[in-house]
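Readers outside the structure-tokenisation community will struggle with the description of the input data as it stands. What matters is that the chain and its backbone geometry are given together, residue for residue. For illustration, here is how one protein appears when written out as sequence plus structure tokens:

…
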Amino acid sequence: MDIKIGGWQVFSDPEDQTHIVDVVEGLDGLGLVKFAPNPRTDLACLQATLGNYYKPRTKGIKHILRPVKNSVTGYRVVEDTPKAELSPGEMTGPVVATAGWNRGGEFKLDPLDWTIRDAVLEGIEEEKKFLSTGGYSKALIEVLKGRFSAYTMPAKGGAYWVNEEHKDELFRVIALFNGVRTRNGEGQNAKANYVDHLTVVANEGMVRACGRALTRETQQALSEIRRDVEDGDLTEEKCMTRLRRAAEIEGKVKRYEDAFGQPMGELTAAVKDIGVMLAQATIQCTASAFAD
């Protein structure tokens, strides 16, 4: 009996912001509305739009946003002045404007310009219509993990493993995320977001090949360290470098040992339990046959 594990590695490549309503309504249509993303916060939308209303007065000087949290919670627009030009004790260049919400929840802009204030508030509401590229990926990951129990491949990578029994529903989710409108979906600046998948089938031969590759790679790395030690020309610094390298190798071997060792131990115990049960059932059948 051969081992065969099928599934997909799913990963996203967003290039632009996405209409949040498309994602929410699409997930609702698939019965997955509980995984629908929330709109960005007012603070995140303020960060996205505030800089659009202030232009540098001096050529070559850029504006940057600095978070502020005292009488208001929001952002300052400041001139990105080179450190060499700052006066002693100054951390940033001149403050152009400060925008945010006071403790009572009222939006404040200093210096007050009603035209800019109204435009910023409209900009915040406009930004709420869109998911950032990070929000798009997060929304996809929430579905993959929450619905399909997906996990990252490798542990800290950007691809998610989904088992083959979820094929039809997974492909509907991928089609949804590939089909949502982007903010700049038309014209010469058009961008698109992509969710791709790689079909993967792992069998016993692949597992054995992985084991051989790990063994070969580890033995080669250990041989290099052993050869350096035997040559006898290591300095203290080089010794420390090779100690760290040895620790890395040990950690890698331990991770693979944990990944395979515990499941195999549990399976071995389960197989033994079945063997005992079958032996007992056989004895009972034999005894019944003699009794008859």
